[in-house]
Specification:
By secondary structure, the protein is mainly alpha-helical. The protein has one domain: Four Helix Bundle (Hemerythrin (Met), subunit A). 90% of the residues lie in helices and 0% in strands. The chain has helices at 2-31, 34-61, 69-105. Helix 1 (2-31) runs parallel beside helix 3.
Length: 106
Amino acid sequence: MKERDEYLERTKRKLDEWNAEIDAMEARIRKAEAKSRKGLQVRVNALKAKRDEAASKLEQMRGVPGDSWDAFMKGMERTWEELKTTIGDTKNAFEESVGSETAARK
């Protein structure tokens, strides 16, 4: 049971870190030029949907009986990897879009 609780806590902490990154991205969107804003917001909205899916699965995992834990955890790991990929892609889009705006202003 201790291992399960540690996994849930570690996953929750990472999700909290990613929530902070999403908040930072939204702050950057507000400062971005209008032409970049819409595309970036679409990406962040997709990211938030993935985050919400992961948060929901994490909450469900708290009530999963021991004999179903392994199967449920595998599903969570797939969702987690998708979220991780989406975060990376979104960060790259930010750097390309907002980074190019910054360079253009110089």
